[in-house]
Amino acid sequence: xxxxxxxxxxxxxxxxxxxxxxxxxxxxxxxxxxxxxxxxxxxxxxxxxxxxxxxxxxxxxxxxxxxxxxxxxxxxxxxxxxxxxxxxxxxxxxxxxxxxxxxxxxxxxxxxxxxxxxxxxxxxxxxxxxxxxxxxxxxxxxxxxxxxxxxxxxxxxxxxxxxxxxxxxxxxxxxxxxxxxxxxxxxxxxxxxxxxxxxxxxxxxxxxxxxxxxxxxxxxxxxxxxxxxxxxxxxxxxxxxxxxxxxxxxxxxxxxxxxxxxxxxx
Length: 266
Description:
Elements: H1 3-7, H2 11-22, H3 25-40, H4 52-67, H5 81-90, H6 94-104, H7 110-117, H8 121-138, E1 142-146, H9 150-162, E2 166-171, H10 174-183, E3 188-191, H11 201-209, E4 212-213, E5 216-220, E6 237-239, H12 244-256, E7 262-263
Parallel strand pairs: 1-2, 1-3, 3-5, 5-6
Antiparallel strand pairs: 4-7
Helix pairs in contact: 2-3, 3-4, 4-7, 6-7, 6-8, 7-8, 10-11
């Protein structure tokens, strides 16, 4: 199999990553092209002990780190949600930005990110934590919790508050959730699936999304009810019992990659 054939399935994703990293599609594509040219010319080689995707990102980083940081610019204010995310990314230190994007956007494990960056696992974990802290501080918002178990709701509220967000309401039923949104527009929704009166958190979220464009994280003991393949599945799904750090990371990612919530036109 040729080198291009081996790498072709991964090229759209490394282009996506390059755009997020550099803040510009043209600049990102330039570095991807340079990396491919270096591979074709034998100036760079794919590490044999790495998977093709990890090895490709590793080569890209070798190219980008040698020259890329010099070309970074922070986009002007205003524009789409994607542009908002780009501006936030550009304000994060380059090394932390790399570790965050590799794990949050590209889905690499911290171990794989360490291989790509040529760093120790502990360093990558710290870089991710540093990026997450910057994001959390900037994206403080109002949060609606949809959860019928008081103890679990209190635990989630404590996590949300610790990140600097404000819990505007805790709803135990579909009706309470819809009423809560009518009173105060949240910037994030954390929802259980099975609620106190037998109503569905899925239906509550559908009602909310009909009125608002807002990120949603499902926290549930019944993930199979959402992972059916019969409809679009949620981006953020956490299984109970949950780890606090998993919830914190999901909140940061959901807010970072989603435009500021807005009320939909009737």
